[in-house]
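tl;dr need the bound structure. longer version: we got a ligand (flavin-adenine dinucleotide) that a collaborator sent over and nobodys looked at where it sits. i said id run it. heres the input, straight from their email, havent touched it
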Amino acid sequence: MSGTLIIGGGQAALSAAAELRKHRYDRPITMLTDEAVAPYQRPPLSKAYLSGELSRDRLWLKPAAWYQNAGINLRTAVHITALDRGACDVIAHTGERIGYDTLILAMGGQARRLPVPGTNLDRVHVLRTLAETETLSAAFHEARSIIIIGAGYIGLEVAASARKRGMAVTVLEAAARPMARTASALVGGWFGAIHRGYGVDLRVNTPVKAIVGDEKATGVELDDGEMIEADLVLVAAGLSVNDGLAATAGLACEDGIVVDHQARTEDGNIYAIGDVARFHSRLYDRSLRLESVQNAVDQARVAARAICGQAVDYDPVPWFWSDQYEMKLQITGLIEGADERVRRGDPEEGRFALFHLRDGVMIACEAINSVPEYRAAQHMIATGARPAPDRLRNPGVAMKTFLP
Amino acid sequence: MAKITFIEYDGAEHSVDIQDGLTVMEGAIRNMVPGIDADCGGACACATCHVYVDPAWSGKIGERSSMEESMLDFASDVQDASRLSCQIKVTAEMDGLVVRLPKEQG
Ligand SMILES: Cc1cc2nc3c(=O)[nH]c(=O)nc-3n(C[C@H](O)[C@H](O)[C@H](O)COP(=O)(O)OP(=O)(O)OC[C@H]3O[C@@H](n4cnc5c(N)ncnc54)[C@H](O)[C@@H]3O)c2cc1C
Ligand code: FES
């Protein structure tokens, strides 16, 4: 009976199941998720869903009938607590043992908790799952103000959604600029200015000492002693990866489960994909753990094909997007390690791209309302192109001319 | 509501009813039409929802936005009839629309 068992109910898990069937895998497939619902899209949670523009029924990745049609045994509300590699079993919170021939770990991560007092108070929210988003969204109805701790993508997207719903928004960021982890100073700073323009009280270099209130949070205290009040607090401090299960079972983990180019762990019957997996990128010559839809979907496809006996290597050109107000940010590649930056277009006009080169080779592009730049850069990164910076900088030179 | 027919690259046809307000891409996903992966879920970031629509329909389905145009500019198998199905909102006027899927999504 066993076949392939997938732990997780996110986009990586779903994509792996779909790809296995697409390649005519004919053994049983079981998906186990500790969420109460079938797989859904996370990106809209902080964007159109939270702002009220997208209804809940448009979040599902597949319709309910698909699981039966495709022969996927989806089991919700099952939390896996242990992995017994010797017996090829996983163990659920109920004590039930579930066997596998092939196991795919797609456990993603959860919202990181802040190491400050007060995070357990009422009205302190995090946003990773649909359930968490629904709690936050319901709280939005009665709240007039929100403090968001963390100016990463999710924090800023929630800030934009909350402004659209007319709330007073304060964003507190410990680092020197917004989106400091993955975006450049120019782009991070530019988005910071946009948010301020929309009336967000955005403060950088502002660590939080505590969330305050008895029972219910009423605000936060900053490191310098200042108190800020609000009806709600959202902690948007990044992701903590769910690799504990694998680590306890003896699989190599370094902030993520270590996998090879086919998404296989050191145990040949066990794969890991998506946010939870760490792999080596030949393109960037370093180990990566990505948190994006692109990575969840593409790595899942590689794992599924490996299980079907078709070895293709995973070496992606990463891509990611973020929507804030009317701004569409699209990033491709990774900016770290660049030694030259070339700007095209005028930030004042709300439409520009920043290309990142290393030794003359295109390695990343951040594009704001600039789709041709983003798309051309994807191709250029994949082929190791060396565009002439003077031409790149000139909006009069069409992006298509940079492609072979 | 509109009846829309999807024709896969190998010729297989799927006629489905799609409710107003959804995108053509969402209609395909909900009705399990193969060949439309829609990785980005309609964010106009992936181009895996590429379809061909007879240009005669453009009056009813609207022109491409510049964002859609640029996404398609760099996609494979692009033709004059190319559209991103996540950017087409279904209206009753589109009843009878036929969309074909490109080879890459076969
Ligand atoms: C609010 C938000 C906005 C985002 N916006 C974007 C965006 O605009 N663009 C983009 O590219 N990416 C975006 N992302 C990131 C993207 O959604 C993730 O990278 C992607 O969903 C990761 O998928 P995954 O399947 O690897 O992990 P997850 O989605 O985290 O799925 C893991 C699943 O495993 C389950 N699970 C974990 N442990 C267990 C266990 N022990 N037993 C049973 N089940 C378990 C979890 O409950 C969950 O269902 C966003 C993420 C969030 C949260
Ligand atoms: S679904 Fe990604 S561009 Fe249409």
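gonna send this back to them w/ a short note. The longest helix of chain B spans residues 66-73.
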